[in-house]
Amino acid sequence: MQWSPQSQQYIKALEYSRKHQFICAVEDLEGLIVQRMFELSKANLTSTGYKLRRQISKAIVKHSGAIQSALDKYNKLTVSQNPQWPTLQYSEVMSYAALSEFEILKCSRHDILVKPWSNGIHHEMTNKYFKIIHAQEEITRLNVKIQI
């Protein structure tokens, strides 16, 4: 039996296909946004050297183009969704400083917003933890220099 565009099976398959494409587009976009956020936070760490900062800034510039194309794909697919998701502007996405601001992530199948590392407080505490670790290493290094 062949499906016709009016058959229930065809409509369900088409709806599933559209939903799957949309979820894939959201996951691509979220992966690029998360990567950008972590690169930005790493570029701002005090222990990051000049050469590494330059490499990170080059990577951020390169990822900006990938984010733009992923955002375009997302915006094209929002029209076919039921209910329709809001379209996003590039400047709006680039201004996100924390994952909790990225509401579209609620659509993904991985529920990334419930992950502990997506919480801004946890992210800040992780940065402080690593600063303490580096400070302890620095104290050890300075004590060795003092003894010499």
Give the radius of gyration.
22 Å
- Unreliable residue runs: none
Taken in chain order, the helices and strands follow as: HHHH
Straight-line distance between termini: 86 Å
Set out the fold topology:
Blueprint: H1 8-43, H2 50-78, H3 90-94, H4 120-147
Describe the structure.
The chain is mainly alpha-helical and 148 residues long. The chain contains 4 helices and no strands. Helix 1 (8-43) packs antiparallel against helix 2 (50-78). The chain is elongated, with a radius of gyration of 22 Å. The chain starts with 7 loop residues before the first helix and ends with a helix. The model has no long low-confidence stretch (mean pLDDT 78).
Features:
66% helix; elongated
Write a concise synopsis of the structure shown:
The chain has 148 residues and is mainly alpha-helical. Helices cover 66% and strands 0% of the residues. It has helices spanning 8-43, 50-78, 90-94, 120-147.
